[in-house]
Write a structure and sequence with these properties.
single chain, alpha/beta, five-stranded parallel sheet, 7 helices
Length: 181
């Protein structure tokens, strides 16, 4: 497991898969994982368009209800599912639609084609930075008309994984150099 790895070890897809299998997490109910933190009609339309375009079945891994004045009385319905269920969603997805930085990160880790709906309320700079590092700026939807070109553009996962490996090495060297001063 991840907790038994040496200091400085950076988790990979296989480590997350190991956690999912250890928990016997069941297969997801669809193949279009939608990880939307701030739901809206526009985002629902985007998801519906992607599902139709790719002939996929959307599913999500979220609490049954959002916490508010009414739902607080049934707090058990507001609890997030286990993280292994969320990880399983990436494993089972053929495509991911998200408005979440972490949704984009784990799409990259799992090498899943994805589309990001920019989420200004959660910090566009980190979305832009992530996409720029991996040469994936074309994965951000700015207009519903962009969907067709995004879903039909293949991602060069060899290039993405090479960049990811270089960034891991650089990060570990940086930490080692600065922690040993």
């Amino acid at each position: 497991l991840i907790t038994t790895r040496p200091l400085g070890y950076v988790a990979d897809k296989e480590d997350y898969e190991e956690l999912v299998y250890k928990e016997n997490e069941p297969v997801s109910p669809g193949n279009l994982f939608t990880y939307i933190l701030d739901e809206s009609e526009e985002k629902t339309n985007i998801i519906e368009n992607v599902a139709k375009s790719l002939s996929l079945v959307p599913f999500k891994v979220m609490p049954k209800k959002r916490v508010n004045k009414e739902t607080i009385k049934q707090i058990e319905d507001c609890i997030f599912p286990p993280v292994t269920q969320w990880l399983r969603a990436f494993m089972d997805a053929e495509f991911v639609v998200c408005d979440s930085f972490h949704g984009a990160v784990f799409s990259i880790i799992f090498n899943k084609p994805f589309l990001i709906i920019g989420n200004k309320g959660r910090g566009m700079a980190r979305f832009n930075s992530l996409l720029e590092i991996f040469d994936l700026k074309n994965r951000m939807v700015n207009d519903i008309a962009d969907i067709h070109s995004i879903v039909n553009t293949l991602i060069d996962w060899d290039n993405v994984n090479q960049i990811r490996h270089k960034m891991k090495v650089y990060s570990l060297e940086y930490l080692t150099r600065n922690l040993n001063q």
